[in-house]
Protein 1
Amino acid sequence: MHVSSGGVRGAKKSGRKPGFDADDVVAAALAEGIDTFTMSAVADRIGVVTGAIYRLFPSRDDLVVACLDTAAATLRLPGRDDDWASVLQLWADECWRVCEDFPGLSRLLYALPTAFTRIQHVLAAYSAAIERSGRSTAQAMFALDFLGDTVIASHMGIVAMRVVDADGATGWDRVRDALADGALMQPDDSWAERGTVDVKVGFIIKGLERDWPAL
């Protein structure tokens, strides 16, 4: 076998793979889906072996937490002079936006009991803004929880309406086909979009304008 100064003839060139860091891993996991990614799929997306991912994140749970923190970092905070109704509207808008921006998040938030612990600083900022309007901490947290649950649960249902099956039919299509003409509930475009969510949010805020629970 002839060995030249460049190495074994015909052998693959050796060398370091392109570098990657924790941010690259998080981005790959988010691209795979925050609720469904696997460590091997993340590694494949980056172009490294799975073991390399574990050197940065010892477990999948650690990577999930990093993904949640990345999503939480995008949440807008209320202004100091915002009234409580504007604060709650912003919270509802941000809950919707973050679920849209990070596919699978709404599902993960219900599947992972500790998910909300990653936004304690965000909840504290929103609660403080509502308390400046004369509400108690318990009342502020009730309103934030009520609206957050409403928006996130609604988003999860809307995602199911958008999913396309192997035949090219969406969840909305399947529901429409399953309901007979004249059924009490008839699907419309709002079932796959935000329209009904805004109605629910407005209803809750209007209700709080009339009465807050004594907490």
Protein 2
Amino acid sequence: MRRFRFLLSRRWALFAVAIVVVAWATWWLGNWQFDRLDDRQETNRVVERNENLEPAPVADVLSPGGDVPDDQEWRVVTATGEYAVEDTVIVRYRTRDGQSGIEVVVPLVTADGTALVVDRGWLATENRGGDASGVPAPPSGEVTITGYVRADGTGDSTKVVDGSTRAVSSTEIGEAIGRPTYGGFVDLRSEDPEPAEALTPRALPEQDNGPHFFYGLQWWFFGLLAIFGFLYLAYDELKRGAPGQRGPRGKRPPRPKADPRTGKRPPRPPREPQSARSAPPSTGSMTPETNDAAGDSRNAAARPNSSGRP
């Protein structure tokens, strides 16, 4: 067990804690991606089922002030009424394909006075807050619409200020315009009669699984890689020996302290012999051979000629 003492050092203990945190974080992120995959698949099933159903009257699916059931989102509903153009609400900062724009929300007041919040579509334009001038007008008089049921947005982004908002909420819009509204809203699919100038309708969500499965595997791979790296470094440290368990090769040990009774020091241990592998090769002689031939320096080292003799 002494060989594993280095794992108890402060450096290795902090290293181990860091690896545990990284492994836990990657495991959590991987599960989060797989949870998102489950949600995406459930949404795809709901969209596929509801878009193939016959349009239902809005009162059969939505209720005034109520919430949209999860299994009813993207259900196609139909409603008849008149648009309250004066209560138009602009949804700001709706970028599409890199182009800035807005969405135009107009309440459709039904026969009993309850308003259905209708997102009529997207318009490419500079953000102008709540200014609805220049926005294509909806059909006048009695209109029959069909559209996809959507759940209300939540949070501070749904606040309606000066006729504009960042996310659609029937509750917030109803309070701003002073009308009772159905819970949830509708993304417009068709209008009868048709308007003189139509807005770009919102597309249905793509019915694929997205990148969540591969993102989840990627996070788990990062966690396993961190654990493997820690184990490899620990194995390498164990193989080389923990720091301080062996001294540097070839150095002379320190001289022992003097005996307090005699004042003499014990003899210094001999220096560790240098290994043959690291010792410099011997030439056999430190004095170079000289050539006494005429014209040659007596102090020059002898060099072999082409015959191999000096």
Protein 3
Amino acid sequence: MSAKILALDTSTENCSVALMIDGRTIARSEVAPRDHTKKILPMVDEVLKEGGITLQDLDALAFGRGPGSFTGVRIGIGIAQGLAFGAELPMIGISTLTAMAQATYRTQQSEKVVAAIDARMSEIYWGQYQRQTNGEWQAIAVSDGQQECVIPPQELAEYLTSKEGVWTQAGTGWDAYTESLDSLPLSMTKGDVLYPEAQDIAVLAQFEWQKGNTVDAEQASPTYLRDKVTWKKLPGRE
């Protein structure tokens, strides 16, 4: 039996919520870069009302743990923690890059996905994924053994370890750094997925629930990948 899971994500320009219950998914999604804090809770109320349940009826609360916008990731995890605390729910963090791989399978049936989110500062958040027979995704190690990384796109080619087959592109990084990424030594096809969606986070969270991979609300943590933010000093500033 599948778990009753509420999922939410605000890690990118997209804001989304999904409820997975009784084998069906109720979802809301809107690209609203500056309105996440206004949109997310009304979306939660809508899907719970449509599903005919309350927060206390859920088994778990899933959230997009990143990578993505620092502010967006913080908003998402903060709201998710608040909801989980109030309803005493365990939490499940899901990679936003893996969620885009799942979305690409949902929309295009692609089983090999290369996901790239524009990380600004001439870098991308990168992940390469192969779908397994049970529906889970295997992340392929890229930079220094990391399965997901932040990296300048022009440096990515030297770290690729899996190049066989045709890979479907997902994420905003492909439009932001077209020249560098299109020159990768991979056979690729364009995809339709730009952002992670809560409905795909809910699917991936089911696998984690079945394996017992949940945490208490106070232990939920983001994945930024970038440890620090760098910027150019303004003229005259020390």
